[in-house]
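Report of the visiting student (M.T.), summer placement. My assignment was to run the structure pipeline on a short list of targets and document each run. The first record concerns Mos1 transposase HTH domain-containing protein.
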Amino acid sequence: MFKTIDDPADCEVRSVIRFLNAKNVKPAEIHRQLLEIYGENVMTDEMVRKWVPQFNDGRTNVHDEARSGRPSVVNDGLVAKLHETSSRNPKKLLSISIADEHPPAHSLYRIEGPGAAIHFKGYRKDQTALARLSSDHLKTFRFSRGDKKFNISAKCNMIEATPQHLLDCVALVYDDLLKRPDFVLEVMKANDLMDLI
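After the run finished, the structure tokens were exported:
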């Protein structure tokens, strides 16, 4: 019985495939030998059969080729922060957000204006209310003959309670919603306007 090697690097397994293939060992036998040394979690027979023709065609590189795609957001600082937090308070670990360390790069997340992302940490209900207020999708709106209709404002009883009107009623502007969402939320709650949002 041979000594088994746990958790080998992919390039190590590919190097063994390349070596055995150079000795004219058949793919099925290569896979059997890999299983014998590396155990059940080694590369599948199908993957061995994928690599053998590549080496036969002259490939010499056993490492993964560079691929385009989203870069990794995990770095040493984030890992250290996770370890430190988990050692102090394991439940707090859930509150660490990778997005805090690496904000989204897409332009839609950086814009300021209608449809912009509001950066607010709070209860889901409050986040939803702010998102509705910023996007003109209040829970009380409806469509009538293709037009967006809002309930009449309870504060003034004569104008539709559009998001802009709600902000006007409490002397706020749209920029406040983007730059000071927690303040907007408190003002809306203080004026009993949350049921309209």
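The CA atoms of residues 7 and 38 lie 7 Å apart. The chain is about 45% helix and 5% strand. I thank the supervising group for their guidance throughout the placement.
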